[in-house]
Amino acid sequence: MNIIQDFIPAGRRNRPGRVNPMRFITIHNTGNANKGSGAKNHAVYLKGDIAAGLPVSWHYTADESGAYQHLPDNEDAFHAGDGAGAGNRQSIGIEICMNSDGDLRSATDNAARLTAILCKKYNISPENVVQHNRWTGKNCPQMIRNNRPYNWDIFISKVKNFISGESGLTAIAGTAIATAEQMRAYIKRINPDAPDFAGIFISESRIESIRGDIAFAQSCLETGNFRFAGSAVTLEQNNFCGMGVTQNGMKGNSFPTPQIGIRAQIHHLKAYANAEPLANPNESPRFRFVQRGVAPYAEWLGIQENPQGKGWAAGAGYGEKILRILSAVLAENAQPENLKIFAAPSFKSGDKVKIKQDAKIYATGQTIPDWVKSREHTIMQTSGERILLREIFSWVFIKDLQKI
């Protein structure tokens, strides 16, 4: 990652110079949507005459090109608004650019990448990566808190991926993070007349180990949230992903039932995601045309963003559009109707638990590091077979927990 050191001169008011024990990393959005207000211009501002006499400073500004560093990590700053509190005095502040002519997703991804670098360098656990909101209640980082380009849960998931050496991109293969109830809540809010296919997306994707929530978000994009207005396909075709529409005016493929149509979509996504064999007989009529494994990440489903120039769709930002919908789905606060069937009665919000030593992965698919298993955690929320732990803000499977 490209990090340019451009420090605020020593001795100025906005460089207090006190020792920062670096216990936390605090994430902000700049609040500056003006064109041209990238990381470099924020560095210029912090070194300028106006900022010199103000209690305003932070350690890094991230944009789509990388990051500028304004202060040494082991010095405190004025970024959290909590006076002599832990936000200003004990945390490294990272501002994420949100200028209207910038790339918000790339800037936010770079901030997650930078956060992971700092976590590894100073042995800061992801549970101590916090929002500015924690210190003062301010609506910051305002873009992430508004699910742009994605929500806080996804940001922390990306940080963990970078820490473990993974790409930080959104793998298509794996287990859905969103529940069927969240899918239903999202689509009914957007389109009350939409058919309920959430359960089919979940069940079909589990069979092939493909994320059904990504497939669902893709269908919402392709069908206009199942309104089919301006879509090349119709509801009666049971084609919810534009399959077979390779040029304007084409009708696309048709399938006998919604389940077979969704199965075909899952099979086609699997063709892009990896070279693993299908569990069910192939239903995608275009499966044979895909170079297997050419787009393992949702971000690479668009031809323009794919490193090999291949993908599902030619339109710019195709994968980002899918992930923006997915982020909105994940923001839905919907509890499973069958929660009592799956959640063990002995687990409830507020309980103290530990993660079993033989646990391998989070419910979101990332590897659980050993240091997490050695700590005590507090249950924040239950959802189906998963439990959200407060201290690390991560979902784990109920089967991997033991009560203290």
Would you write up a description of this structure?
With 404 residues, the protein is of the alpha/beta class. The protein has 3 domains: 3-163, Lysozyme-like, CATH 3.40.80; 180-330, Lysozyme (Orthogonal Bundle), CATH 1.10.530; 339-403. Helix content is 32%, strand content 12%. The protein is built from 14 helices and 11 strands. The chain has helices spanning 39-47, 49-52, 86-90, 104-122, 133-136, 142-145, 152-163, 180-190, 198-208, 212-223, 258-273, 318-330, 339-342, 370-373; strands at 3-5, 24-29, 60-63, 66-69, 91-96, 129-131, 352-355, 377-383, 386-389, 394-397, 401-403. The strands form 2 sheets. A 6-stranded mixed β-sheet has the order 1-4-3-5-2-6, with helices on both faces. A 5-stranded antiparallel β-sheet has the order 10-9-8-7-11. Helix 4 crosses helix 7, helix 9 packs across helix 10 and helix 9 (198-208) crosses helix 11 (258-273). The radius of gyration is 23 Å and the shape is globular. The two termini are 41 Å apart. 45% of the residues are buried. Mean pLDDT is 89; it is low at 337-345.
What labels would you give this structure?
Lysozyme; about 10% strand; 5-stranded antiparallel beta sheet; alpha/beta; about 400 residues; single chain; about 30% helix; 3 domains; 11 strands; Lysozyme-like
